[in-house]
């Protein structure tokens, strides 16, 4: 669904965690150590919460360190694990380092690139994570840069990461489109001057209180079709 008549972007900026990576693949690892599958969502939400809070307090936030510490705290407070909490942390983080792309991502990126748009990633985590994720899936050829908020010391949805991406790509923010599954990312990008696309794989209503996306699609393939039509 297209909400505006803004022209097709020159650069498509991709969020990484959950937008590209299929974190549902971690559920089996949580089950393996005796933790409920819903702990995956609880843990990841806590990582984001803590990173946002540290940024608001003016402190640096390291995604990998927060992920490890948060997981250790959750598992340490949980009874019924079949492994020691520290071993459980290593099992989960090892599985996270080997996540797959969502099935729609690679064919969608191929079509977006064929339509003439440049593609970069912009993550609150390390750029190396995006690089490894794309390389494992054979999709790295479609992405010209892997950018991280580490370069500016602020997490999305603060404006600095989006402006940094525009500077690195040598375009105006209005010539970029942020693609994400997170409404907070959509809102941050919109406030920084980018157009936005929400990937709604779950087909749930867009939550109130956030700025609406310019484009809403059920997959990267559908987004590629929208962008190709607009060109």
Shape: globular
Note the gap between the termini.
16 Å
Mean pLDDT across all amino acids: 95
Write down the secondary-structure element order: EHHHHHEHEHEHEEH
SSE topology sketch:
Elements: E1 11-14, H1 27-32, H2 39-56, H3 63-76, H4 85-96, H5 105-114, E2 118-123, H6 127-136, E3 145-148, H7 159-169, E4 176-180, H8 183-191, E5 195-199, E6 215-217, H9 220-230
Parallel strand pairs: 1-2, 1-4, 2-3, 4-5, 5-6
Helix pairs in contact: 2-3, 3-4, 5-9
Describe this entry's structure for a reader.
This protein is of the alpha/beta class and 231 residues long. It contains nine helices and six strands. The chain has a six-stranded parallel sheet with strand order 3-2-1-4-5-6, sandwiched between helices. Helix 6 (127-136) links the parallel strand 2 and strand 3.
Question: Would you summarize the structure shown here?
Answer:
It contains nine helices and six strands, in the order E-H-H-H-H-H-E-H-E-H-E-H-E-E-H. With 231 residues, the protein is of the alpha/beta class.
């Amino acid at each position: 669904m297209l909400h505006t008549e803004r022209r097709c972007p020159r650069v498509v900026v991709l969020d990484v965690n959950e937008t590209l990576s299929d974190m549902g693949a971690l559920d089996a690892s949580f089950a393996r150590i005796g933790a409920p599958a819903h702990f995956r969502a609880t843990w990841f939400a806590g990582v984001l919460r803590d990173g946002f809070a540290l940024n608001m307090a003016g402190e640096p936030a390291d995604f990998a360190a927060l992920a490890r510490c948060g997981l250790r705290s959750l598992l340490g407070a949980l009874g019924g694990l079949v492994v020691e909490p520290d071993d459980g942390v290593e099992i989960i983080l090892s599985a996270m380092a080997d996540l797959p792309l969502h099935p729609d991502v690679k064919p969608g990126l191929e079509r977006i690139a064929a339509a003439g748009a440049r593609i970069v990633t912009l993550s609150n985590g390390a750029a190396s994570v995006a690089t490894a994720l794309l390389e494992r899936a054979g999709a790295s050829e479609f992405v010209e840069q892997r950018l991280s908020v580490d370069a500016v010391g602020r997490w999305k949805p603060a404006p600095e990461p989006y402006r940094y991406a525009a500077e690195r790509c040598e375009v105006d923010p209005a010539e970029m489109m942020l693609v994400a599954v997170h409404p907070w990312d959509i809102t941050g990008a919109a406030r920084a001057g980018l157009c936005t696309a929400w990937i709604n794989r779950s087909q749930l209503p867009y939550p109130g209180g956030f700025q609406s996306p310019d484009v809403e699609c059920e997959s990267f393939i559908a987004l590629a079709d929208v962008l190709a039509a607009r060109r």
